[in-house]
Amino acid sequence: MKHVKIPRDRIAVLVGNEGETKTAIESHGVTLDIDSETGDVSIRSDDAVVELDAQSVVRAIGRGFSPDHALHLFKDDYYFELLDMRDYVGKKGKDVHRIAGRIIGKNGRSRRIIEELAGVYLSVYGTTVGIIGQPRGLDVALQAVRMLLNGSNHSTVYHFLEKEKKRMKLEEFGLR
To answer: Which of 21, 73, 133, 149 has the fewest Cβ atoms surrounding its Cβ within 10 A?
Structure first.
């Protein structure tokens, strides 16, 4: 059995309209017990791998991802990474808010560019940045986010992402 604690404001998203998200997760062979007062979620399955995948799905939804994006984690080649922005700027709320703004960008532009060029899903929630994607794109997105967290210019990060997208395309066609 696995246990996950998610923010109370994300419980409704985890359950979904008329329980549809909970049902979609449970259709993979797990049972979810959700305590809506505390945000504690218990995950049970006879299959340890499915239990771990479900744990990742629940954590991702708890960190701001839509259920559609989080459910990708049941696929063999999708993974979830979580970065804590406080590791880069300290505990000050003002600094975390500022650096979150750098990752999101004006009108969500920076986040959208990272998602498109790396082929990932990105969520900035509270003090964390979550990324869901396949291994190569996940690595590229992690590096791009870390560059922004460390103060790199957006143009430098976008150039890096464009270069890596070309590299991934060449690798896809076996040209590299």
So the answer is: 149
Q: From CA 27, how far away is CA 43, in angstroms rounded?
A: 13
Structure tokens at 172: 């896809």
What mean pLDDT comes out for the span 62-76?
96
Compute the half-sphere exposure of residue 170: CA atoms within 13 Å on the CB side of its CA: 8
Of 51, 55, 59, 45, the closest CA to residue 6 belongs to 59
CB 132 within 8 A of CB 60: yes
Q: What are residue 139's phi and psi, to 5 degrees?
A: -60, -45
Q: Are 64 and 44 in contact (CB under 8 A)?
A: no
How confident is residue 175, by pLDDT bands cut at 50, 70 and 90? low
**Amino acid identity of 76?**
D
Q: What's the CA gap between 124 and 6, in Å, rounded?
A: 15
